[in-house]
């Protein structure tokens, strides 16, 4: 039972980290990109990843951050 509780805590920490990442993006990217991030966050607000319960928007933010890290521009991310 304690393993399940720890797992739930890990998910919550992950969700908090994703929102911090969102606000980090917001400070360094254009208004157009942050508008798209806001829209995606609202659109996928009630969706979670299969089997893990992690908010789906975490996947979107993760892919965008990897793309930007490897030199993609805002349109590609």
From TrEMBL:
Domain of life where this protein originates: Bacteria
Protein name: Uncharacterized protein
Organism per entry: Nostoc sphaeroides CCNUC1
